[in-house]
Amino acid sequence: MIDFKNLSPIDQKMLGAACHFSGWSHYRVKVGCVLANHGKSILATGHNDLPLGVEDPEGALDHQREMRRMLMQHAEANAISQAARHGIATQGATAYVTHPCCAQCAGQLVCAGVQRVVHFNMRMHPSWNKNLELSQFIFSKNNIECVSVKPQPNAYTKHRRIQRFDAKGTNMEPMVQAALDVFFENEPA
Ligand SMILES: [Zn+2]
Question: Rounded to two decimals, what is the model's pTM?
Answer without folding.
Answer: 0.82
